[in-house]
Amino acid sequence: MTIEVAMLISGVSLAFGIYTGITNLKRNQKTDTKQDTAELTTVIVKLENIGNGISEIKSELTNVKNDSKEDRERIIRLEELTKQAHKRLDNIELYKKNE
Q1: Which ranges of the chain would DSSP assign to H, the alpha helix?
Q2: What is the pLDDT of residues 43-99, one digit of tens each?
Q3: pLDDT per residue as tens digits for the range 3-19
Q4: Predicted local distance difference test score (pLDDT) of residue 2
Q5: Best CA proximity match to 45, nearest among 56, 35, 34, 53
Q6: How far apart are CA 16 and CA 10, in angstroms?
């Protein structure tokens, strides 16, 4: 009878050990899933922030290009006006020399 009691205790201990192991495994999986979800959410938020930053940079770059284009057009106009002013000054100098 002592062998049967020992086997019974061993069987109960084995069953309890298996039950505890499975319970801990499930709990660890749930914890790991929560941590993975939190990390993934953090990564997604950071990627969205990077995407927003890139959009802002593109917008600013477009504005800089437009400003540069406007400045180029102004410089061209000023060069034309300068040429015309030089021609007028040259004509005035010629007129004064001929007087």
Answers
A1: 2-98
A2: 999 999 999 999 999 999 999 999 999 999 999 999 999 999 998 888 888 777 776
A3: 788 888 888 899 989 99
A4: 63
A5: 53
A6: 10
- Gap between the Cα atoms of 38 and 42, Å rounded: 6
What are the Cα distances from residue 49, in Å, to 43, 56, 60, 64?
10, 11, 16, 22
Structure tokens at 79: 């060069």
> Cα 99 from chain centroid?
73
Closest CA to 78 of 86, 90, 88: 86
The structure tokens listed for 66 are 């437009």
Length of the chain: 99
Calpha distance 98→51 (Å, rounded): 70
